[in-house]
Amino acid sequence: MTDYSVTIPTIETERLILRGWKEADVDPYFEMYGDEHNARFVGGHFTRRDQAWRRVAEYVGQWQMRGYAMFAVEEKASGEFVDCCGPHFPDGWPEPEIGWGLRISFQGKGYATEAAMASLIYAYTELGLTTAMSLIDPLNTSSAMVAMRLGAKYETNKEVTGFTADVYRHRPSADVLAGA
Amino acid sequence: MSEFVPVLETTRLRLRGWQLDDFELLASFLADDEANRFRGGSVDRKTAFTTLEAFAGGWLLRDYGVFAVETLEEEELVGWAGLWHPVKLEEPELCWSIFPAHAGQGLAPEAAGAALVWWTQMEHQPAPFSMTHPDNKASQRVAEKLGAERGEDFLFEGRPSWFYRHKVPDEAHWERLS
Questions:
Q1: Taking each helix axis from N to C terminus, what angle separates A141-149 and A111-125, rounded to the nearest 10 degrees?
Q2: B145 — alpha (psi -120 to 50), left (phi > 0) or beta?
Q3: Residues of A whose CB is below 8 A from B62
Q4: Residue of B16, B55, B61 with shortest CB distance to A21
Q5: What is the maximal distance between C-alpha atoms in chain A?
Q6: Model's pTM, two decimal places?
Q7: What is the gyration radius of the CA atoms in chain B, in angstroms?
Q8: Residue of chain A whose Cα is closest to the Cα of B84
Q9: Mean per-residue pLDDT for B149-155?
Q10: Do B50 and A58 touch (CB under 8 A)?
């Protein structure tokens, strides 16, 4: 019989912890994406807290069903919820995406790059992916910068389930694939 | 975080956790305007996928949630039942929905009854409430079959709703439900 359990691994980087989700993450998540401006590149803002709760539940649900999904990201030093990062594969996506977000007060420190790099290595070494992509709003220059810092290259502009995004292609280096 | 979704069996049904294979049947049900007229209307595939994710993920954020309901023999997904608790509600709601192709066979009270027994008897939780749209006669009949008592009508997201308070099933009631 199917085992409806899930184990979300914990990944430590120099300054961050990628971990499973907690209900306590809902408040800071809502605070960030309840704001129209902050949410302009992620498909619209929340108007009620229960929408943020549901989004967190969706991430956790994707972990159970796909065996991977977005991590919650925490700052090691403060224990604060930073945002989310990780593999993301909803219905209608052409392939798994590596996604990231960063709450305002944590921006400008290289955290998105640090978390996304850890997610990419996880995707290559634990999930067996040999490539990955990131979907980025053409106006989201700071996210495009993160993709380029990760070594991704612009590939194409594509319509995905009702929105148009730039596709950035990640490819692992030989040493990552070799497990170095 | 809860790690497991329990599996419950009734005479004809199995209540279990959600899996990716449930998506097509769930999405086609949620795309049906008529079947979803009391739940705010139909939704597209993209939103249906988030519903599936939220059902699955809700279990892990809390220690309870909404079960997928399948037939015992054919293992065909026929709907859902369980405790739904987004943060806008002060307590979990006992909810149920059986797809139109399987309506009229008493599967909704059987599924919701199993969830009610599990919640109150095995988890030792107080009897939950349910709400229905004032025009949703079928759902009101299910609430009454479960032994719920009608409370005061209230507004939920601006819509008038009928309120029902369930009771903790005793042995005889339990037998009838499962």
A1: 50
A2: alpha
A3: 23
A4: B61
A5: 47
A6: 0.83
A7: 15
A8: A54
A9: 93
A10: yes
ipTM for the whole complex? 0.72
pLDDT per residue as tens, chain A (180 positions): 466 778 899 999 999 999 999 999 999 999 999 999 999 998 889 999 999 999 999 999 999 999 999 999 999 999 999 999 999 999 989 999 999 999 999 999 999 999 999 999 999 999 999 999 999 999 998 999 999 999 999 999 999 988 899 999 999 877 777 765
Smallest CA-to-CA distance from B113 within B81, B85, B157, B158 is with: B81
The tokens of B131 are what?
A: 């709400």
Asked if B56 and A60 come within 8 Å (Cβ–Cβ), the reply is: yes
Rounded Cα distance, B106 and B54, in Å: 26
Question: Which residue has 């007060």 as its token pair?
Answer: A105
Backbone angles phi, psi at B95, to 5 degrees: -125, 165
Residue with tokens 């502009």: A157
Contact A61 B62 (CB under 8 A): no
Dihedral sign from CA coordinates of A80, A85, A14, A147? negative
Are A4 and B1 inside 8 Å of each other by CB? no
